[in-house]
Design brief:
CATH architecture of the largest domain: 3-Layer(aba) Sandwich
Structural class: alpha/beta
Bound molecules: flavin-adenine dinucleotide, FE2/S2 (inorganic) cluster
Order of helices and strands: EEEEEEHEHEHEHEEHEHEEEHE
Number of domains: 2
Strand content: 25-35%
Distance between the termini: 31 Å
Shape: globular
CATH topology of the largest domain: Rossmann fold
Number of strands: 16
Oligomer: single chain
Largest sheet: 7 strands, antiparallel
Number of helices: 7
Strand order of the largest sheet: 4-3-7-1-2-6-5
Radius of gyration: 17 Å
């Protein structure tokens, strides 16, 4: 569904990382793991909408946390309170579809890079539902970490490649210390992180990994096929429509 929201607040919360709060109106309802596709300008630059995971949503408000990288996110950072913002959403399947299958398993939630925004919404949901879970965010260094105070409130542990925040090493090193047989992992981040998580769980029994992919997207609604990933049965799936969350065992990474 297409929305014409109003920017409530757009603020740099860490170096090059911004949080944008939008008044989307009462009709906007979303679930953890879903994303919105934002039309940043009416001009040709950038031409395509840009996808962002929902960081949190409540009542009429939806928030994203984004890293300024190129033309689109630079223009997004210039939005001011009161500006209109056209977006489509909520898009994609939620982690909650897979959470239902987890039953009484121990839950581990992992975010890497800007993928942390996506799992933050899930962690908030789990906390509100009174569920216990292990929560990990990893980044290259402290200055790349997303929304640290909000993650701390949810009991998150941190790992950085250079040791500047939390444990020194990869999220998979921290995961190895916390993983137990039968665990269910929800993760969002870059593909190398998924490979490392898979490897860290290789000798642990009955672990399920559900991963949310952030492939380059054109339309965000299943029409252009620019976001496809290969599955282990040789077919291709659209990340925007068939995912973004997949059983990691079903995907070639
Ligand atoms: C489902 C989904 C959810 C996302 N959620 C978030 C989020 O919550 N926060 C956030 O900061 N970003 C998120 N992203 C990535 C975000 O969409 C891109 O960073 C953004 O579109 C870049 O736009 P731009 O015009 O600023 O940069 P561009 O000029 O388009 O690209 C700048 C640089 O970013 C790289 N880049 C662009 N898109 C991606 C991508 N999908 N994956 C990896 N690298 C990319 C390009 O290779 C290039 O080096 C998400 C992407 C997807 C598909
Ligand atoms: S982005 Fe067009 S099909 Fe996924």
């Amino acid at each position: 569904m297409k929305f014409n929201g109003k920017v409530l607040r757009n603020k740099e919360i860490a170096e090059n990382i911004w949080k944008l709060d939008i008044n989307a109106g009462k009709q906007f309802k979303s679930l953890p793991g879903q994303f919105i596709n934002v039309l940043i300008n009416d001009t040709y630059e950038p031409l395509l909408r840009r996808p962002f995971s929902i960081f949190e949503a409540s009542d009429k408000k939806v928030s994203i946390v984004y890293k300024v990288l190129g033309a689109g996110t630079k223009a997004l950072a210039e939005k001011k309170s009161g500006d209109s913002l056209d977006f489509i959403g909520p898009l994609g399947r939620s982690y909650l579809e897979f959470l239902k299958r987890a039953k009484n398993a121990s839950i581990i939630v992992i975010g890497g890079g800007t993928g942390a925004a996506s799992v933050h919404y899930l962690a908030k949901h789990l906390r509100a539902a009174g569920k216990k879970f292990v929560f990990i965010q990893g980044a290259r260094s402290a200055c790349n970490m997303v929304a640290v105070p909000e993650f701390k409130k949810l009991g998150c542990s941190f790992s950085t490649d250079d040791g500047s925040l939390g444990e020194k090493g990869f999220v998979s090193d921290l995961l190895q210390k916390k993983i137990t047989g039968g665990a269910v992992i929800f993760a969002c981040g870059p593909k190398p992180m998924f490979r490392a998580i898979k490897q860290a769980c290789a000798n642990v029994k009955n672990v399920k990994i559900y991963a949310s992919f952030e492939e380059y997207m054109g339309c965000g609604i299943g029409a252009c096929l620019s976001c496809v990933i290969e599955t282990t049965d040789g077919t291709y799936k659209r990340v925007c429509k068939d995912g973004t969350v997949f059983d990691l065992n079903d995907v070639v990474i």
